[in-house]
Design goal:
Layout (H helix, E strand, L loop, with lengths): L1 H19 L8 H27 L3 H28 L9 H11 L4 H29 L3 H32 L1
Amino acid sequence: MRKAFGLGVIVAALAVTAGAGGGRAAMSPLDQHWLMQSAQGDVYEVTVGKLAMQKGSNDEVKKFGSMLSEDHSKSLQDTNKVAKQLGVKVQAKPNPLQQAIITILSKTDDAAQFDSLFLQIAVGDHKVDIQDAKEEASKGQDTRARALARKELPTLQKHLQTATQLAQTSSSSTS
C-alpha cells in the first residue's frame, strides 16, 4: 500500500511539474499525429511543387507548383517551430505513399500527362489536408497546434481551389 501511495505522489508531482514546464506536458495523440503529418505533407508539397515547376506543360501549372513550394516551405517552418516548442520530433521527409507519388511524377515524361496526374493528386491531397486541419483545429488539445491548423486552413483551401480550377481547365482542353 505504501509503495502505491508513494508512486501516486510521484506521478502527481511529475504531472504538475510537466504542466508547469511551459508546454512540455504530454501531447495528445491527435496533436502529435497532426504535427507529424503536417511536416511530412509540407516536405512532399515542396517537392511536387518543384517537380511541377520543372515538368509542367503550361505556365499556370508551373505557377501553381511555385505557390505550393513557397507556401509549404513557410508552413514547414511554422510546423517545425510549434513541434519544437512542444517537444515533438517530426520527420522532414515524405511518408512512403508520398514518396511513391513523387517517384511516379518524376518518371512521367509527357508534360500534359504530368499536368493531369499532378493536378488530380493535388485535388485529392488537399481535400484530405483540409479535413485533417479542420479536425486538429476543432479537436486538438494544444492551443498552439490548433492555432497552426487554423492558420493553415485558408492556404490549403486556396490550393484546393486552384488545383480544382486547373484540373477542370486541363481536362476540358484535352477533351
